[in-house]
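--- STAGE predict ---
source: upstream dedup step, 1 unique chain passed
mode: sequence only
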Amino acid sequence: MSDIWTFLLLAIATGIAAFIQGAVGIGFALIVAPVMGLLRPDLLPIALLILMLPLNAYVGLRERNAIDWKGVGWVSLGRLPGTFVGLGILVIMSANGLNQLIGASTILAVLVALFAPVFQPRRSACATVGIITGVTETATGVGGPPLALLYQHLPGPVLRSTIALCFLIGELVSLAILAIAGQFQPHQWLWALALLPALAIGSFTSRLMHHKLDARRLRVGVLSFAMISGIVLLIPR
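--- STAGE serialize ---
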């Protein structure tokens, strides 16, 4: 597939994913990571983490008055050790192995989001979710479902803004550690910058629509797409 078609498909996935995350609170990595893994696995996780920085900064600022600051603190505390585990996984795995891991992580995340018992955002639960998110997001770029599970029974603004801030802090930590470990490549930055307009369109559109959308149906759609994509990534090539 030519770079033009690859870019167009990634731009469409990025715009749709930014719209969904801005409206629901999760979905960006679940949509973009499998598509990126299929088309350009060499961009993961750096390009995905870079794209998520402005998206989560925007969502967090938009509903900053609803942020659960204590929860953010405990999640971020747990995130640090998990990040180092995720870095170790990323360093030792091949591109094909990483695709397999992304596929398995995506499927597991969907199953957790669908069937796991409800978490309450207490200290121990927040720290545990932070560790899990640090591992999976640093290694694959996918880290949303555990956080969504933690906050799924709180009001939408609390869920969206708190998850966005947790992501933002965690992504900065992950990117800093990945940079120190020499995992950055110039083309990953260039692709992320090229996809920013699609991200901006999806993000700003979500602002107009997030009060009107049926979040339950969108969540089902995101999880269904993620499950299919994860299964495709597990198919040997």
